[in-house]
Specification:
2 helices
């Protein structure tokens, strides 16, 4: 059970970090978002 909790906490942390990165990207000019999105697609 503890292992499951730790895993969930880690996932949540990763999700929060991704969300924060996304919010930062949205605060940037549109061209930066497009560039960031293309980079992201390459990594996926």
């Amino acid at each position: 059970m503890e292992e499951k909790k730790a895993e969930l906490a880690l996932r949540l942390e990763t999700l929060e970090r991704a969300l924060a990165t996304l919010e930062e990207a949205l605060a940037q000019p549109f061209s930066v978002i497009v560039r960031y999105h293309s980079t992201l697609r390459v990594h996926l």
